[in-house]
Every structure is written in C-alpha cells, then in structure tokens.
# Entry
Amino acid sequence: MSGGRREESVATDTSGALDTSSARAEILRRIRTANAGSANAAGAAEQWAAIERPYRRTPSGSREEILELLEDRLRDYDANVVRVKEAEIASVIGRMLTERGRAKLLIPSGLDRAWLPEGFEFVIDEGVPASVLDGFDGVVTASTVAIALTGSVVLQNVAGQGRRAVSLVPDYHLCLVRVDDVVETVPEAFDRLKATANLPTTFFAGPSATADIEMTRIKGVHGPRFLDIILVE
Amino acid sequence: MSSANSVLDPKHSVLDPKTSPAFPIAARVTLGDTQLRKNVRHATEVIQNKRARVVGEMPDWQQLRESGKQIRQHTMANLDYYLEEFERNCTRAGGKVHWARDGEEARRIVTALVKEHAAPERPEVIKIKSMTTEEIHLNLALEAAGVKTYETDLAELIIQLGHDQPSHIVVPALHKNRQQIREIFQREMNLPELGDKPQDLADAARRFLREKFLRVNTAVSGANFLIAETGGVCIVESEGNGRMCLTLPDTLITIAGIDKVLPRYQDLEVMLQLLPRSATGERMNPYNSIWTGVQQGDGPTNFHVVLMDNARTAVLADGEGRQTLNCIRCGACQNACPVYRQTGGHAYGSVYAGPIGAILTPQLQQLHHAQTLPYASSLCGACYEVCPVKINIPEVLIHLRNKVVRQKGPLTPEALAMRAAGSLFRSERRFRAAQRLGRFAETPLVRRDGKGEGWIGWLPGLLGGWTQVRDLREMPKETFREWWEKRGKRGN
# Structure
C-alpha cells in the first residue's frame, strides 16, 4: 500500500539478520488506517492534558496518622517495623541483626556508615556475581520514598540503595525509611519519583509472597523472606 | 479427574483457538469435573472477597476507573505516536526494539535473539509469567529450536511441570489444589517426601529455581506497561521471580503487545492503583519493577523489546470492539463471571478465558475461529462492573454476536429467525397473527401441573436449547391488548 512508503525509510534496529523495519512500517500503517490518520506530538500532548484526574492526589491525614498507616500496612504484609530517632539507628540495627542471627551483611556503597553497629561484618557491594550475593546473611539499604496507603517502599539505584540485585538475592532485608520520605498516596509518590524516572526502580510491599496455591498467602518465595523496616525520625 | 477429560486434555494439545473444540462442547466436559469446579469456585471466591475489601477502602475508586479508561482510550487514539516515542526513548537508553506483525514473526525474533545470546552448548532461558508468550506458544517454538525454558512464576511452574495449560490470566493454576500440586512436584522434582502444605510447596519451588536464577544467562519476559515518555518498562509481580529474571541474567528479551504502551510515567499512578487491587485484591503487588533500557552495573547488558501486533490492529479498526485493547489483564472479570466460575478457563480454548477472553480471543482470530465464545455469557454485566478500566464487555459481546451471524451469511437459522422476528415486530397485523398462531401451535406441547398451569418442557429443533434446562410457561389465553379492547366494547 502506498500509505506505508513514508515509514519504510525510518531506520529501526538492523543488527544482524533481525531487520524488522518492514514489520514496523506495516504495523504503524495498520494503526493509522484504524485510527483514520497519524497522531502527532502536539495533538497527543493536548489530549493527554485533557484527561480528567479527579482521584486523590494529596494527603488527607496528619503526619502522625500517615506514619501509623504505613506501619499498620507494612505489618499487615508481615514486615517487622520500628520507629527510631536518628541517633539510635546503630544500636537498633545491632539489636535486630542479633535477634535475626545475621552476621555477614551486604551494604550498597553510599550507605551512612554512622548507622552501622560494631561487631558485624559489613561488605560494600562492588558488583559481585549473584552467586556471591547468595552467600550473604542479609542486606541493609536506605530507600527513596514510602507510600502509606499501600504499604510500599520504593528503592532506586542511588547511593545507599544500590543496584537491584543487592536487595533481592540475600534472604533478609533491613530497610531504613526516613519519615520525611513517607507520603500517603500513590500519586504523591510518583510526583517525587518523576525526576529520577529513568533509574532502575523497585517497589516492594512486605517480604516476597505468593497466593498461587489455593489463594493462600505464603510469605517468602524468591525475594527476601525476612524484612525489617526502620522508620527514622 | 473424569475420563471424559481426554477431549480437553491439555497434555494432548495447547490452548489454540484454531484447533480447540467449540465452547459448548468443551464446557460440557469441564462441567463434569467436580474437582476442577470446586477448585475454581474456591479460588475465585477468595479473590473476589479480597478485591471487594480493598476496593471498598478506596473512596476515589470510581474516579480512578474513569481516569484509567480515559488514559487507555487516549493511548489507543494516539497509538502510532506513543509506540514511536517508546521506541525512540528505549533505544536512546540502550534497548533494542523489534517489531513483529504476528506470532510467527515474534517467535522467530525471540528464538534468534536467544540463540544469539544464550550459552551455545546449552541454550536455556528463564521466563517471567507472560500471557503474551502463552498467546503465541513461545515455549513450544523455543523447545523446538533446542532451547530449554524454565517458567519461574510458581503457578506457571506448576503448569509447565504438570504439562498443563493456564486457566486464568493472573492465577493460571487456580484449577489445581494443593494435593494435585504436590503430586506434580513429587514426580517432576523427584521429591517423594514432599508435604502438601502451601509453605512446603513454595519452599520446594524456591530451591528448584534458585539454582536456575543463578546460572541461566538469558531471560524472557512480558510487560505490564511500556512507558512512551521514558522508554521504560514496568512489570508487577508477587514472588520475586520477576526481579530475579529482570536483574540477574546478561540478556533480557521483553515481548509486549502493542497495546501495552502508556503515554507518561505519571500514568502509572493510576494503573498501579487499579491493577493490584483488581487482580489479586492487594493494595499493591509485593514487587513492581520499572527500568529503562540498559543501566551500567545494574541488570542485563543486552536488552531487547519485541513489539507485537498479532491482530491487535484489526481490533483497533473495529469502532465498537477496540475498547477490548484497553484491558490491563487483571482477571477481575474472570473471577466475577458466573459462566467462568462454573466451567473454568480451559473450556474457552484460549489462554484468554472468561469474559475478556470471550471478546479478545475471537477478535484476535478475526472471527475465523472461536465464534462460539461471544455466546459464552449470560450478559449479566458483572464483568463490566468490576473492570478497572470500564470496558463494556456485554456491549462488545453483543456486537461480536452480530458480527458472527452476519459473517455466516443471510441463510443461517439465527439470521433467518431474526429477520422473521423483525418482520413480525414491524407490523401489528402480523404480530397479532403470530400470537394467535403461537397459541394454536403450542397446544400439543403444553402439559398441566397440579394447579392447572400450563408448561412446555420440550421444544423442537434450535428452540430446544431453551427448554433443555428450564420449562417455558404456556402463552396466556388472551393478550393485554385483547383484554383492553373487549373491556372497551363492554363500555366500562
């Protein structure tokens, strides 16, 4: 069809034998036929701005209510949650690691060393293979933002949080969340994440889980089976 | 399991609408499997109750649904623009984007990429649960090319090891109970002592798969959302198997229908509220992953995205049917459907079962196959009510029934009957004549009950479908109009 000619010239991936540019042209042509015309940046932007968003985008509770909601939701997902002052962090981490019987811990680079207690082995991640990550007793990370309404904590690849594998392979995750980073709703979290949208990002809500067997929630499948959260005031 | 199951035995076939038996035939078989019906009823009830609870917590749920619908409609209206924008941004971030007109092309591309990247002496891939790869039976193509595939989602692992087929979009093994799963694991993982507690079964899966996660260097995934604005991809999951596949291998191949694109990053704030509450009744999935292209020192160094049409553009071209593409694959309509809850998923002869399958499957087949699926519904509307993006499934079902009848031509019994009915309803004279004729014609079929009420328990030919499961009341001796006219003549 003649309508497809314009796209034929647009370059797409042509590495090796996998040149799919004719499929690309054909699919775009089919879409334009179905939609009776081509879309463009200006039209799309204008229509996108006209989408109605009457859902909640701002907090409705007080700071304290929001923090209590987060604690409640995290506990509902079987996470252990404590709230501490900045100065107490190291001693609380020490107590938690002792209770959990964890001695050899992985930390991403950039994690505040003042938080780490004496008497444990903390190893900075230097991109070791996954099989080595598997040998650690656990991992300690900071976090970017937490959402009270859904009990979610968000990690990004920045200092103190590290690459995605460090908070995944070890069986125990101790995560620090600053109360200033706690929001109530999902839209507030996306407002904060927008600026760093391109970074690898992981939302987690409690330890790994499944309900695939008779819809019974089972804690712990492949991700960390044990999760402690420290809310830092 | 019932022996009649051989007609539908997933071991002998894949769920392919081109070769599967018609829904009424397949449903008759699954309805005879009481264990399956018990499992499906239990699972759908649990999910429905969980969903109702967490949806009830949200004072702005209806507003979110409306925004979700508008975002999806807007995306489809500008689909060419957003796909090109996604391609541009993903490519800039180090990803490679490929396009596939149909399942055949998608299978060829993925197989070629796997062959290029996987260990040549022992090509293997780990897989994240993906309905898109089920739709094109990718595993069969990979196995045929000598590539070993490992499903890593617990339910998909149960399906794969049990040589079974998925029966639900979100919980594909919901038709199996713990004893059946234990038997599969005992046999396939060689664990004769394995218990049947869900925790034991999940632990067995963890041990079985961990070694694969640490060894296999190539992963294949689907996608929940492609973000045009950033070129990013979002995958939601529960177990952490997704994160393992997205993070540990050197190569990641993501295959997505062209309908999976979202305009902007911010749109996730709507979808990530609608999807988990609708799908599994959770406030948020245990894990959501969002990544953009290739990130130095974090995750795969080779990242490929395959954008697949496979008749989605044909759906887009149908003014009434195109809303089907707004689907975000939550499965809420399946759990709510009184038909699905009785038959389970396999009867639909497609990996997309339930109400969404009844409209998606025939359209993806361009109505050449699966023509009975639009009739696999009582049009009760429960699916529409729970749909997080407000797809009017009953409306599309009726639209497709109309298309099926028209496609079959003007001389089928249904087309002729409808034409005759149309002619009767257009003329008062013909309508009255038909009523008189009906009262006369039914006489030999009417049986009186103890109270003297007349019932019809059997009707001939096509009409017999109605009386097969219920009795029909005899026609009244006199219509309202006849009564009214007589009353007028008597002058009171």
Summary: Residues 21-34 of chain A form the longest helix (14 residues). Chain A touches chain B through 82 residues (CB under 8 Å). Confidence is low (pLDDT under 50) at residues 1-16 of chain A.
